[in-house]
């Protein structure tokens, strides 16, 4: 008989305002079936003489005096993929435990249970339940069914990688002339070593490297702000293949949504600390830079495909741009009732028009079939408008690059 899949583990980290609240949350997690649960003062190893961190300043001074709970949950009998809908519910459940005790869920990590148990730090261990596992329902929950798609749209192919690289380099040469004069994130495009490097297998590989150079792992910085005019110039360049141009526009949506996405991710933390989280300067300036270049992109509106218009409308919503053509467009888009297209258009229309009352039902419909939206929406401290803006990159991805929508997708997200 073949051996089953190895047990899967998830380690959760919670931040709580006091030792008592941390101990209470730890007891609750242990009661849910978590195998190991430890409670330590925030920055515990700063006070341990043998630790590398001993005596060093706190990496998160806002949490000075807070406590942390580290808890390991183990699940067995299934491959990781089959567990995802259940684990999503568990993440929401543990986040609620943190909120109930005045704190927030700071993160979680996953891996083979044996590995996580072996490296689990026992300092402050308060609950040790050898062999404990979180009870799994039978059958496991499935992801919700996606509604029928709207009419297919196609923005064209991504183009040959060498041609896309050549077009991008030509724009860089036109704007900057040399690597020395280019922003830090773009100098490599004009570097001699790049010119003689290995060719890219696909245009998307190259565009992925470009996106990572501009905003490493999606994080906006000062270099991102400097690079936005270049991305806008690329999106207007007729030598960029239509599918690659659409990819660039989606990258701009992702960058423009970085501020709202951070607000959603940090909503519980902000509430627990009793403050208001200001948008980072880099996120704010990135969105401002996109907004300054948006009128030029919108000037081509009448000649654009619906896929590009959908992406431009998302950018307009993120930047608060009230272009009359964009505002009127969602009502003209073929979007059959009870379709994913109709749900996407409802959210976009509510954001573009500033209809806060329309946001909640639109988000509820999306959450009924998009698990990522459902998980973000589960937090009671999340602002609905921030949430609507934060999910726009995923929404563009789902609609424009869905297997139901484009045959030759430059990025296979689904």
Automatic annotation (TrEMBL):
Residues 137-158 are annotated as: Disordered. Residues 138-151 have a biased composition (Pro residues). This is HEAT repeat domain-containing protein.
């Amino acid at each position: 008989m073949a051996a089953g899949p190895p047990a899967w583990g998830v380690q959760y980290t919670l931040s709580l305002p006091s030792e008592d609240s941390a101990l209470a949350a730890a007891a609750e997690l242990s009661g849910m079936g978590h195998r190991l649960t430890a409670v330590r003062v925030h920055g515990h190893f700063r006070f341990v003489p043998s630790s590398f961190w001993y005596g060093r300043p706190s990496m998160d001074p806002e949490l000075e005096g807070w406590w942390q709970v580290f808890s390991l949950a183990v699940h067995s009998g299934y491959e990781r993929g089959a567990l995802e809908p259940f684990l999503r519910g568990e993440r929401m459940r543990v986040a609620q435990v943190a909120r109930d005790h005045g704190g927030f869920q700071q993160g979680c990590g996953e891996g083979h249970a044996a590995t996580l148990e072996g490296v689990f730090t026992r300092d402050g261990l308060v609950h040790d339940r050898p062999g404990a596992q979180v009870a799994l329902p039978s059958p496991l929950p499935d992801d919700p069914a996606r509604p029928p798609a709207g009419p297919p749209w196609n923005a064209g192919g991504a183009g040959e990688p060498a041609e896309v690289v050549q077009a991008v380099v030509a724009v860089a040469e036109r704007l900057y002339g040399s690597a020395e004069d280019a922003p830090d994130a773009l100098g490599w495009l004009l570097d001699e070593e790049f010119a003689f490097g290995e060719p890219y297998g696909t245009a998307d590989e190259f565009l992925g490297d470009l996106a990572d150079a501009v905003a490493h792992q999606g994080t906006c910085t000062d270099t991102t702000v400097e690079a936005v005019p270049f991305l806008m110039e690329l999106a207007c360049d007729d030598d960029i293949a239509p599918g690659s141009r659409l990819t660039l526009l989606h990258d701009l949506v992702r960058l423009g949504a970085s501020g709202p996405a951070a607000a959603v991710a940090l909503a519980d933390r902000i509430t627990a600390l009793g403050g208001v989280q200001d948008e980072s300067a880099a996120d704010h300036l990135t969105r401002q830079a996109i907004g300054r270049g948006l009128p030029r992109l919108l000037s081509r509106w009448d000649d654009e495909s619906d896929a590009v218009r959908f992406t431009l409308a998302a950018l307009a919503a993120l930047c608060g741009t009230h272009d009359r053509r964009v505002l009127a467009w969602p009502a003209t888009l073929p979007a059959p009732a009870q379709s994913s297209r109709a749900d996407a258009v409802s959210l976009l229309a509510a954001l573009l028009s500033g209809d806060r009352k329309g946001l909640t039902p639109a988000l509820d419909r999306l959450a009924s079939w998009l698990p990522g939206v459902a998980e973000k929406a589960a937090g009671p401290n999340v602002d609905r408008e921030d949430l609507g803006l934060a999910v726009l990159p995923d929404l563009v991805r789902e609609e424009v690059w869905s297997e139901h929508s484009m045959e030759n997708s430059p990025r296979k997200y689904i």
